[in-house]
Design goal:
The protein is α/β, with parallel strands linked by helices and about 550 residues long. It has 22 helices and 20 strands.
């Protein structure tokens, strides 16, 4: 078309001309956007992708997730109409930005949930919030109840001042525990291990009763072999004094509605939390959908098998579809990794990785995880508390199993996490039995049917259920669920220093930093990484300092 005719046409159709210019500018922006490659579609990876899209139009997040589901260990497993929360995830944070982020995705309930309706209870709800009986995109307010099963008796967690506590412990053990605690406070031990850390805060008697064996069950090594930084990160300032103070305050506390902030409480002492209607995976699937709607990219079933480096820069990643697809190399400007550090180092090529870094990364310890889901007609053990529950089942969200004669670590009761995780709330109970193991060991390699029978047998031995009440079952294995703090971890500083040497690479999330972070802390590392990208900051210290007592890390990891 001649230029003058084209000009006449544009003059006759100004709206069309504007529309064409708009699309040309949009295409130009899309071409000029810097590509941020995100390895892993768990809480850290999805948070980073959404934050980039919210804060700037200059970046295109591209997320690669090895599994078909997003959320990492925070995903929800669906089995025959029942939903399983892998690991149990209480949504709680002292960071307002995290609480707001969750509730912007899924608002708080504005009407009673199913179990409250069945019990005839009226819970304080939020004005204009969605009705969980009608709406699916809703966050529930849940009561937190956790107890310890030890010597076939229940102990409140955190500790409470009740006659039952003294009766269960025995007067002699109670007195011994008190003297042990005061002795520990007067003569503090040098903190060279997790064992030292716990004894300084709870005393030797309580340590041997409630911490020593359970910790070894979880991690597979004695607490004296675990780095002290684990305590600084997970237990922080919690001590027997604070636990007792919380118990005393609870006696005189008056109900004040739904205070979901609980900022003045230790995380281990909170008494309620928020929770997505269909479990944690629902929130991360919602986040994934929002990321796509805003123009980001999410590739599921894509495993990162190569990370190409040149000098101080990462240039591209090579991914392969886990369903047998071809390999593909994708270039990027920035890279955020939330995959296990062990896998990241193994994937780097094009740059020399020092031999000691390779060795440390190869030997970084992890704890793997197995959950057995059992659908029951009923529990053999009854509810002897004053807390009301549907069908009068135990009120606990989870129970720590401290008994030495079984391998199970925790028991979850999904009915109490959310009534919508269970297909038939009134007539069935849906529980999860959690086992800690190492990939390739006896537990990990046990056939599913045999393992399920083994797990059910342990519950029968504890008088929690009877075999004839089992209606259905499922078994889920999770690799590298928990980064561990022993062995090669003591030299992790060298690995961190090597990875920080790449100016456009940031390590985020639990596995990305080899830190046993909670979900909110994993998200905070993503916030910090996104801030660094937008501001041009190449210093990664703000990312690594999230949920970290730097004094401990400096003492334990001088490298």
């Amino acid at each position: 078309m001649p230029r003058f005719l084209r000009s006449v046409r544009l003059a006759l159709h100004p709206a069309q001309a504007i529309n064409q210019r708009f699309h040309r500018e949009r295409l130009k922006i899309m071409v000029e956007r810097k590509k941020v490659i995100i390895l892993g579609g768990g809480p850290a990876g999805l948070t980073a992708g959404l934050e980039l899209l919210e804060r700037s139009n200059d970046y295109l997040p591209v997320v690669f997730e090895e599994l078909g589901d997003v959320g990492g260990i925070s995903r929800t497993i669906l089995h025959n109409g029942h939903r399983m929360d892998i690991g149990g995830h209480r949504f709680f944070s002292k960071e307002d930005v995290i609480m707001d982020w969750w509730l912007n995705l899924m608002p708080l309930q504005g009407a009673q949930s199913r179990d409250d309706l069945m019990l005839g209870e009226t819970k304080s709800v939020y004005e204009n919030g969605p009705d969980p009986e009608v709406d699916d995109c809703v966050t529930l307010i849940r009561r937190r109840v956790s107890r310890i099963l030890y010597l076939r008796r229940f102990f409140d967690y955190p500790i409470s001042i009740k006659p039952s506590t003294i009766i269960n412990m025995g007067l002699a053990n109670t007195i011994k525990a008190g003297f042990g605690y005061f002795r520990a406070r007067v003569a503090k031990r040098a903190e060279n291990s997790l064992e030292d850390f716990i004894i300084n805060r709870f005393g030797a008697t309580l340590y041997h009763m409630f911490f020593e064996d359970y910790t070894e069950k979880v991690w597979g090594v004695h607490p004296s072999k675990i780095d002290v930084s684990w305590g600084a990160q997970r237990i922080k300032s919690l001590s027997l004094t604070k636990a007792l103070a919380n118990a005393v305050a609870a006696i005189f506390k008056k109900p004040v509605g739904n205070d979901i902030s609980q900022k003045n409480k230790e995380t281990s002492l909170i008494d309620q939390f928020i929770y997505p209607k269909f479990g944690p995976g629902q929130l991360w699937e919602t986040a994934a959908q929002k990321l796509i709607e805003k123009g980001g990219q999410l590739h599921r079933n894509c495993k990162v098998i190569g990370v190409k480096a040149e000098g101080r820069l990462i240039k591209s990643v090579t991914v392969q579809n886990t369903n047998g697809g071809a390999k593909e190399e994708i270039a990027g400007d920035f890279f955020l990794s939330s995959i296990p550090v062990k896998d990241l180092i193994a994937a780097v090529y094009g740059a020399v990785v020092p031999a000691d870094v390779v060795g440390i990364a190869e030997n970084l310890p992890y704890r793997d995880f197995i959950t057995v889901g059992l659908l029951l007609k009923k529990l053999h053990i009854g509810n002897k508390t004053k807390l009301k529950t549907v069908s009068n089942i135990l009120p606990d969200t989870w129970i720590y199993i401290q008994e030495k004669d079984v391998k199970v670590g925790r028991l979850q009761i999904f009915n109490n996490w959310s009534p919508y995780l269970v297909k038939d709330l009134e007539n069935t109970i849906w529980i999860g039995l959690e086992y800690f193991c190492n990939e390739g060991d006896e537990l990990w390699n046990m056939p599913d049917i045999k393992f399920i029978d083994f797990a059910a047998g342990e519950m029968i031995r504890l008088d929690i259920l009877k075999k004839e009440d089992i209606l259905d079952s499922v078994m889920i294995r999770v690799k590298k669920a928990y980064p561990a703090y022993f062995g090669a971890y003591k030299q992790f500083g060298k690995v961190r220093r090597f990875l920080d040497g790449f100016s456009n690479l940031s390590c985020i999330g639990r596995n990305g930093q080899h830190r046993y972070n909670n979900m909110d802390h994993s998200m905070m590392t993503a916030f910090e990484a996104v801030k660094n990208i937008i501001t041009g900051n190449e210093d990664k210290s703000n990312i690594w300092s999230v949920n970290s007592d730097e004094n401990y890390h400096e003492q334990r990891n001088p490298d």
